[in-house]
Design goal:
Layout (H helix, E strand, L loop, with lengths): L23 H18 L11 H10 L5 E5 L5 H7 L4 E6 L11 H5 L3 E4 L2 H10 L7 E3 L20 E5 L8 H12 L6 E5 L15 H11 L3 H9 L6 E5 L3 H9 L3 E4 L9 H8 L4 E4 L14 E4 L4 H12 L5 H16 L1 H16 L8
Parallel strand pairs: 1-2, 2-3, 3-4, 5-6, 5-8, 6-7, 8-9, 9-10
Helix pairs in contact: 6-8, 6-11, 10-12
């Protein structure tokens, strides 16, 4: 169970029973209460003890009778579940490390029977903050649908660098634009496509940002980020294209036609879903050394890892792919192979099933 963000019935798995729960009451109530508490506490409303409380109570009733409940990133719900679903084993799943950085939520985290992180880097942070749960902490990649994200039947690639995700400073988009400007000076056909909403993260949500980047990220988050990106592109701004958020089919098509996919994050990325999706489409990647993606981008034949915030290193890595078209078939094949072997939803489902079995029967516990 977790926050309600909507779902696409066309993508539902027939092996899963879906229970729709109306969260409209929560959205209006949280918006009103959050204005007050977020301003006073200088933290995001997601971290409030009462966040989406009406949704939680309805969801808890729906899962009564289950012996295991998985809570998605809201540890403040666990004490309520202990009362409403007595006897259930509770697993706290995290795709990001934001809640583990909030001190007042740590007692709720400690109330879980097990922790699951979407990458080893998240689990490492969990264990540092709540070491008593380290023996019951596991890594399960979020997974990517390798039947949906696939290479194009005939790969036709121009000179195109693609980024997908929120266009916000902590994702390092400005570093990518700086790198693109270095490359574009001598590559007149190269273009940069930024696919995603211009949704700049509130500075109150940036807990855990590494010290070397926090001042820069906060400063950029308080200004007009889109205008700053255009300024940094300089004379090549007409070759930087903002698409806004794209439907799934259009995003897949964009990834399939990218020369290289770039995710230059400045914060600890959880799993890095868009990176995994690009690999599944047969697109090589260049990423920063933050968070989960460096755990599976370890083969230079599928991508490169560079220090976060280093535009020159990023430009060099991108050029090593853009300037060698003869390598593209090898890169595409290896990217797809990595995605299918390591990152598929089937592999993730198998890993999660093992973890849940271990939670149900501690003697069956796999290695974390």
């Amino acid at each position: 169970m977790g926050g309600s963000t909507g779902r696409d019935p066309a993508l539902e798995d027939p092996r899963i029973r879906y229970v729709p729960i109306d969260d409209r009451v929560d959205r209006y109530a949280d918006r009103a209460v959050g204005v007050v508490t977020s301003s006073a506490a200088r933290r995001h409303e997601y971290h409030r003890q009462t966040y989406h409380l009406a949704y939680l109570l309805r969801a808890a009733r729906a899962v009564r009778g289950n012996d295991i409940v998985v809570v998605h990133e809201f540890p403040q719900w666990i004490p309520w579940l202990r009362r409403i679903v007595p006897g259930a084993r509770i697993v706290l799943w995290g795709g990001a490390d934001s809640f583990i950085e909030v001190d007042h939520l740590l007692p709720d985290v400690r109330a879980a029977d097990a922790l699951v992180g979407a990458s080893g880097s998240i689990v490492e942070r969990f264990c540092a903050r709540v070491p008593e749960l380290a023996p019951a902490s596991y890594t399960v990649y979020s997974g990517v649908d390798t039947d949906r994200f696939v290479p194009a039947p005939e790969r036709v690639v121009g000179d195109r660098i693609v980024y997908a995700g929120r266009v916000t400073p902590e994702k390092g988009v400005h570093v990518l634009v700086d790198a693109f400007r270095m490359l574009a000076d001598h590559r007149p056909d190269l273009e940069l496509v930024l696919a995603g909403p211009r949704w700049v993260t509130s500075p109150s949500m940036l807990q855990g940002t590494p010290p070397e980047h926090v001042a820069e990220v906060v400063e950029l988050a308080t200004g007009d980020y889109a205008t700053e990106l255009e300024r940094r592109a300089g004379p090549h701004r007409d070759r930087v294209r903002f698409t806004g958020g794209l439907p799934g089919a259009e995003l897949i098509a964009l990834m399939q036609t990218a020369t290289v996919f770039c995710h230059p994050g400045l914060v600890e990325e959880g799993f890095g879903t868009v990176v995994a999706e690009a690999l599944a489409c047969g697109t090589p990647v260049v990423i920063s050394d933050r968070g989960g993606p460096p755990e599976y981008v370890v083969d230079p034949d599928c991508g490169h890892v560079v220090p976060s915030g280093d535009a020159e290193a990023l430009a060099t890595a991108l050029a090593s792919i853009v300037d060698h078209p003869q390598r593209r078939p090898t890169l595409a094949a290896r990217a797809r192979e990595v995605a299918c072997a390591t990152l598929s939803v089937d592999r993730s489902a198998e890993a999660l099933a093992e973890v849940l079995d271990a939670v149900r029967r501690p003697e069956a516990r796999p290695d974390g």
